[in-house]
């Protein structure tokens, strides 16, 4: 995780850079942590359990962490943008008038007393969003004996949904060997990723498939139905195609040979490379001495 935080305590506040996977920590801090789930577009209160009323003039800072991003949103007694118009601050709580899915993340409250006492609390806020209609990625045809991968995807649900698969409207168990209906099939099913893998694929696996996404927020959502056909390799068709191809090539070769043998691809020339036109002699008596043939160049 990479980000910047400010260190509390007397004197100037140096900027600390957190590198790699180092965790945000305050030396000697008392740390509490909890998780809250709030429906989207509803108000939310994020408690600061680190606050101590017995501490004299404590200084409070709030940070928001989401992935590798760390934002300082309450510092020096003021809310920063864009929280000024969305959040109400009190020493023990920050109040959101309404939350959206972008507010999902970790809220960190750090409290420093004037005697260098330090406390820290964290709240993991999950803004609940029902899943949208998932998309089923199913091959329409696959070869028996091969590996076939089916995937189910959904991007809106919070918390992230889990997935179930149906074949011919029947729920597929995670382990096919536990079901009389699916025991002849060989597959693995991961509810967290929505991946269904047949290895090897069998003729039994032909059918209509769809997936379902659910996160217990709103109603489960189903994908469209896609038919997958498991078929044998068509050896006869492949052999026939090869025979036809060989016949075509043989006919083409014969045609080229025949054309060459008839002289369609060449013209007669004399030794100098010039064209020669030869005329046949006419019938004459043996006593006549005349030119019986002529060469025109």
Question: How are the SSEs placed, and which strands pair?
Answer:
Layout: E1 3-6, E2 15-18, E3 30-39, E4 44-47, E5 59-66, E6 69-75, E7 78-79, E8 87-90, E9 93-96, E10 105-112, E11 118-128, E12 135-137, E13 141-143, E14 148-153, E15 162-167, E16 170-171, E17 187-190, E18 195-198, E19 207-214, E20 221-222, E21 226-231, H1 235-261, E22 277-278, E23 295-296
Parallel strand pairs: 3-11, 13-21
Antiparallel strand pairs: 1-2, 4-9, 5-6, 5-10, 6-7, 8-9, 10-11, 12-14, 14-18, 15-16, 15-19, 17-18, 19-20, 19-21, 22-23
Describe this structure in words.
InterPro entries: F11R, Ig-like_dom, Ig-like_dom_sf, Ig-like_fold, Ig_sub, Ig_sub2, Ig_V-set. It is found in: Cell junction, Tight junction; Cell membrane. This protein has a six-stranded mixed beta sheet, with no helix packed on it. It contains one helix and 23 strands. By secondary structure, it is mostly beta strands. Residues 1-25 and 292-297 have low confidence and may be disordered. 9% of the residues lie in helices and 38% in strands. Strand 5 (59-66) and strand 6 form a beta hairpin. It has one helix at residues 235-261; strands at 3-6, 15-18, 30-39, 44-47, 59-66, 69-75, 78-79, 87-90, 93-96, 105-112, 118-128, 135-137, 141-143, 148-153, 162-167, 170-171, 187-190, 195-198, 207-214, 221-222, 226-231, 277-278, 295-296.
């Amino acid at each position: 995780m990479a980000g910047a935080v400010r260190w509390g305590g007397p004197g100037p506040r140096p900027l600390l850079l957190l590198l790699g996977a180092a965790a945000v920590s305050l030396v000697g801090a008392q740390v509490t942590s909890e998780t809250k789930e709030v429906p989207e577009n509803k108000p939310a209160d994020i408690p600061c359990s680190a606050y101590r009323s017995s501490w004299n003039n404590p200084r409070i800072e709030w940070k928001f962490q989401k992935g590798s991003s760390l934002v300082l949103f309450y510092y020096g007694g003021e809310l920063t943008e864009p929280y000024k118009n969305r959040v109400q601050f009190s020493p023990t709580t920050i109040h959101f008038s309404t939350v959206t899915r972008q507010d999902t993340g970790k809220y960190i409250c750090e409290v420093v007393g004037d005697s260098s006492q330090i406390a820290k609390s964290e709240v993991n806020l999950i803004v609940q969003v029902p899943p949208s209609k998932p998309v089923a990625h199913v091959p329409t045809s696959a070869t028996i004996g091969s590996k076939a991968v089916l995937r189910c995807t959904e991007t809106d649900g919070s918390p992230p949904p889990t997935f179930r698969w149906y074949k011919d409207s029947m729920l597929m168990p995670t382990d096919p060997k536990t079901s009389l209906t699916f025991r002849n099939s060989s597959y693995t099913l991961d509810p967290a990723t929505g991946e269904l893998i047949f290895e090897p694929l069998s003729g039994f696996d032909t059918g209509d498939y769809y997936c379902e996404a659910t996160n217990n927020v709103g109603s489960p959502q189903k994908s469209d139905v896609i038919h997958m056909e498991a078929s044998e390799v068509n050896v006869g068709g492949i052999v026939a195609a090869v025979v036809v191809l060989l016949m075509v090539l043989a006919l083409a070769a014969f045609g080229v040979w025949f054309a060459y043998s008839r002289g369609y691809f060449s013209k007669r020339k004399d030794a100098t490379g010039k064209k020669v036109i030869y005329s046949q002699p006419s019938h004459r008596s043996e006593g006549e001495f005349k030119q019986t043939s002529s060469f025109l160049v």
